[in-house]
Amino acid sequence: MHERVAEDAPGTAIAYLLLGVAGGLGLDLCAKGLLAIYPLEQFVFLRSFVGMFIFLVLAKQFGGFASLVTRRWPWHVLRTLLACGAMFGFFYGLSRLPLMETLTLGFTAPLIVTALSRPMLGENVGWRRWLAVSIGFVGVSVTLRPDISGISTASIACLFGAFCYACLAITARKLGSSESSYALSVYVVFGPMLIAAVMLGQGTWVTPDATGWLLFVAAGSCSVIAWIGIIGGYRRAAPAMLAPFEYTSLVGGALAGYLIWNEIPDRWTILGATLIIASGLFVAYREIGVRRLPRGPGQPHPPALPAAPRQHR
């Protein structure tokens, strides 16, 4: 199953994307509450188990189980390992950092993709986009506020998760012409579920109460909603057009962090987020500009800007 991007339905695409953003934010809120009580590996396992169950139920809507057939197992094994890094890194950071700070660091992933596109994909990245990436990483430094005590392990874990997601986005580009989006998503849920199950074998399981079970089911359901929304949006419109709407999750994260956990972002987090968002929007703007340039005979469109970080979900 190979999908075409239909660029004639911007309203529907934005609606799908905002649904995905809401699902992703719902997952993050459930995760932050659960990770205060339950171990990380248990959260990854149950979130993935619920999500996997829903994926299997919806298989027919995405081409059926035949769309999972692949001959490129080494790539899927690599993507499974990257998905583990993205999931464990992001959610470890989420369990120890304020919600908005975690989301801000997670949004470095599109900038990392741009930086890696040249060495890993051979794509041309002009000096303006390199400048935007550099400013974005200045924003990361501002958000981290490194001092003589060093950078926290949680912050490093978030950045590692963002790096793993960026590599997932790049491998998705490489496999996009031969693999279905269903296969690209299901395998990266199944792999972390197995690895988390092995880790749970060490005796770290904590039996959830009724509220815990409800939140675990909600987390898995929200992850599927995020997947359907993001894929549905990016199948209907150019990623560069939709990218700005991804940043609405930062606004939602800031409000939720304040209302639920009484978290108030400090000025450095706000400044860092502003620099990262501005850099990401400029990269999207340059992507639109490059796509509008006249092309010579036989020249393809440049690759689309990847979606913001959702693969960890």
Rounded to the nearest angstrom, the radius of gyration is 19 Å
Q: Kindly state the mean pLDDT as a whole number?
A: 80
Question: What are the segments in which pLDDT stays under 50 over at least 5 consecutive residues?
Answer: 1-8, 293-311
Described by its quaternary structure, the protein is single chain
Overall tally of structural domains = 1
Count of runs of 4 or more consecutive helical residues: 12
| Number of distinct beta strands | 0
Shape: globular
Q: Percent helix among the residues?
A: over 70%
Strand proportion, as a percent range, falls in under 5%
Reported for the largest beta sheet, the result is: none
Distance between the termini: 22 Å
Task: Kindly describe this structure.
It is a single chain. The chain is mainly α and 313 residues long. The chain has one domain. The protein is built from 12 helices and no strands. α5 crosses α6. It starts with 9 loop residues before the first helix and ends in a 21-residue tail after the last helix. The N terminus and C terminus are likely disordered.
